[in-house]
Amino acid sequence: MGNWEANVRKVVPYVPGEQPAEQNIIKLNTNENPYPPAPGVAEALREMNIGKLRKYPDPTCKILVDAIAENYGLNANQIFVGVGSDDVLAMIYMTFFNSKEPILFPDITYSFYDVWADVFRVPYETKPLDENFCIVKEDYYGKNGGVIFPNPNAPTGIYMELSEVEDIIAHNQDVIVVVDEAYIDFGGASAVPLIEKYDNLLVVQTFSKSRSMAGMRIGFAIGNEKLIKYLNDVKYSFNSYTMDETALVLGVEAIKDKAYFEEKCEMIIATREWTKAELKRLGFSFGDSKSNFIFATHERIPAKELFEALKEAGIYVRYFSKPRIDNYLRISIGTDGEMFKLIQFLENYIK
Ligand SMILES: *Cc1c(COP(=O)(O)O)cnc(C)c1O
C-alpha cells in the first residue's frame, strides 16, 4: 500500500442542519424563511427560456449584479456574487486571508469560519464572547491577518450597534474586515454605507434567509471596487461560471420586489417578538435576537432533552453540543401557525 494518504488535504467538514425527507414536520432548524419567494420568481421560472440552458451563463453575472447594485444605490463594480454567501465567504478567505498572522473571529459564531480556515490553511484565533454572548470589540484591536464576524451574530442572534462595528473596522485598516450580514434584514442597521469610508471592508449578504431563496444558492459581497476586482480575479481562476442561468434570472426577480421583501421581513419580526414573549412566559431566557431565530435556554429542562422531545413530536430545532452553548436551542422563526404549535407543545411538555 502506498503512502498517498500522507498528502491528502484532510478536513473536518462543516455539518449543516438536518433536511429531513418527511413533509409534515415543523422545520425550525436551519433559519429558512417560512414564506415563498417573491411572486415574480415563480412567474419567471414558468416563463424561462429552456433553450438558453444550452449555452454557458454570463460569467460576469451582469443582470444580477446590476439588480443588486440598483437595490442598494451602488455601482455594479462594488458587487460580487456567488453560490450562496458560503461560496462568497470561501472566495474571500482564498483572496484576502493570506497573512501569516491569524485571522480573528468570535469563539461562538458561524461554525463554517474555522472550517474554511482549515481548508485554506489560514491561521486563526478565536476571541471569547462575553457572558451575555456579546462581541468584545477591544479583543479585535491587536495585530492580525483579518477579521470576520456576523452581525447579528449566529447562533446567538445578538446584534452589535453599527458604531461598534465601525470601531472594529477603524482599528483594522491594514487587513480585510468581513461583516457577515446574513440576518441584517430582520432589524439591524447594515454596514453597507461604511464601504464608502473604509476600502478594507466587505459586507456579505445572502438571498437564503430574508429573500426566501436558500434552495437557489445566491449570496453577494459589497465593497470597494478594488476588493471586488480582486475577488473576481480569484473567482475566474477557480470557476468562471459559479452562478447558473436560473439563479441569475430568478435572483433578479427576488431582489426587484421590495414591497414583498419588506412585508415578509416585518411578518417574521412580529412573529419573533410574539415567540419571545411566549418563551419567556414558559421559563426560557435568551438574548435580544434581531435575526430570524431565537437562541434560548430553559430554567429547568436541559436543551438536549427538549431538542429530542421536540424532534419526536415532528418539530425540528437546532442543538449544538459545543462548550458554552450546549444548554441552548436555536429556534428559527416560522409562520404564526408553526410557532403556535411549538409553544403549545412546550407548554404541555414543561407542565
Ligand atoms: C446562513 C448563513 C450563511 C450562509 O448562507 P448561504 O445560504 O450560503 O447564503 C452565512 N453566514 C451566516 C452567519 C449564516 O447564518
Could you state the order of secondary-structure elements as H and E?
EHHEHEHEEHEEEHHHEEHEEEH
Radius of gyration: 21 Å
**Strand proportion:** 5-15%
CATH hierarchy: architecture of the largest domain:
3-Layer(aba) Sandwich
- At the fourth level of CATH, the homologous superfamily of the largest domain is Type I PLP-dependent aspartate aminotransferase-like (Major domain)
Low-confidence stretches: none
SS summary, helix count: 10
CA distance, first residue to last residue: 60 Å
CATH class placement of the largest domain: Alpha Beta
| Average of pLDDT | 97
- Share in helix: 25-40%
Q: How many domains comprise the coordinates?
A: 2
CATH topology term of the largest domain: Aspartate Aminotransferase, domain 2
